[in-house]
């Protein structure tokens, strides 16, 4: 049986080789930039993981890798430009950008009562959708689609064999408002037609509470 390109890529891609930025690394990049940092409203953290059959939160957490936390626009771009692009990730890998140090896990205290807007995206559109949602997250534009009292936790892109999955995380599933959020997302990428758009509370996942 012939080996597919995605299988070869996954075999050669090692999560342990994914870039993890140190303060020293970032200082070198800042020195190259020579621009004063424009502060973000809150810090944001880049994460990467590979989907697995983890049966516990601890196992899932062990498979999650923190890349770096950024607190300025310049640091955000420095990290984004120096990690593999989303097109370079093999299937089953995910990038996450989460507010502060929130982990992209249902069990995180900020996530356990929340959920995600889930967008099925054609691969040709994934880079555009991912970058626009990243910028909307750090620029707080996604907050325009929230009900009062709700908050954005982060955004995720999950690379799949066919269409990819992009997610927007929020704090409160009870406050999730599709009529507000979906138009905001469409306004960010008006030329993209999503395959599927829906909201899913974390607690409705079959595995919620069992890992």
UniProtKB/TrEMBL annotation:
Source domain of life is Eukaryota
Enumerate the UniProt keywords alphabetically.
Answer: Initiation factor, Protein biosynthesis, RNA-binding, Translation regulation
Per the record, its GO cellular-component terms are: eukaryotic translation initiation factor 4F complex
Q: Name one GO biological process term.
A: regulation of translation
Q: Does the keyword Transcription apply?
A: no
Enumerate the InterPro entries for this protein.
TIF_eIF4e-like, TIF_eIF_4E
Give GO MF terms, alphabetically. RNA 7-methylguanosine cap binding; translation initiation factor activity
Q: A Pfam family in this protein? A: IF4E
Family to which this protein belongs? Belongs to the eukaryotic initiation factor 4E family.
Query: Which PANTHER family does this entry report, sorted A to Z?
Result: EUKARYOTIC TRANSLATION INITIATION FACTOR 4E RELATED, EUKARYOTIC TRANSLATION INITIATION FACTOR 4E TYPE 3
Put simply, this protein is called: EIF-4F 25 kDa subunit
**Organism encoding this protein:** Cuerna arida
């Amino acid at each position: 049986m012939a080996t597919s390109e995605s299988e070869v890529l996954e075999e050669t891609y090692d999560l342990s080789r994914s870039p993890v930025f140190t303060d020293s690394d970032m200082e070198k990049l800042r020195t190259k930039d020579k621009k004063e940092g424009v502060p973000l409203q809150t810090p944001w953290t880049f994460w990467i993981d590979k989907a697995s059959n983890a049966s516990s939160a601890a196992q899932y957490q062990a498979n999650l890798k923190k890349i770096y936390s950024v607190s300025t626009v310049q640091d955000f771009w420095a990290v984004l430009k120096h990690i593999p692009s989303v097109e370079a990730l093999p299937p089953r890998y995910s990038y996450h950008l989460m507010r502060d140090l929130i982990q992209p896990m249902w069990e995180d205290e900020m996530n356990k009562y929340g959920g995600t807007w889930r967008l099925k995206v054609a691969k040709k559109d994934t880079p555009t959708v991912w970058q626009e949602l990243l910028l909307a997250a750090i620029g707080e534009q996604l907050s325009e689609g929230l009900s009062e009292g709700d908050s954005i936790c982060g955004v995720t892109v999950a690379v799949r064999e066919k269409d990819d999955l992009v997610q927007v995380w929020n704090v409160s599933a009870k406050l999730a408002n599709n009529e507000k959020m979906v138009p905001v997302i469409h306004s960010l990428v008006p030329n993209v037609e999503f395959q599927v758009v829906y909201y899913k509370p974390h607690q409705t996942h079959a595995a919620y509470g069992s890992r």
